[in-house]
Amino acid sequence: MDDVIFIDGLQVQALIGVYDFERDATQPLVFDVEMTVDTRSAGSSDALADTVDYAVIAQTIEAICTQSGFALVEALADTIATQLLRDFPIQQLSLRVTKPQAVPAARGVGVRIVRRKESA
Prior knowledge:
Elements: E1 4-14, E2 27-36, H1 40-45, H2 54-67, H3 73-87, E3 92-99, E4 109-116
Antiparallel strand pairs: 1-2, 2-3, 3-4
Helix pairs in contact: 2-3
């Protein structure tokens, strides 16, 4: 299956980081998500119920970030990927998390992970 639903550049505020100054206030994170989903049913029915609602995906990511206090973007990314694969009909996802303010000389730093749904 090569169908992909994506979200590019989702900006969310989160309390994240290992240094004391990062623990004092939220900072911006940028998420890029690619989800492998079978879109054939939605293509035939034109019904939102037959696909993955990207607005709900964005809300889920925002909720996890709001409730989190992770030190590492790796841990945040893994938590998000685990929940999305558990709660939605996604076979695989690629999740990129960028911290735009982490390294002043860089446009951004972060992590990109790829996860697949476990076989039942």
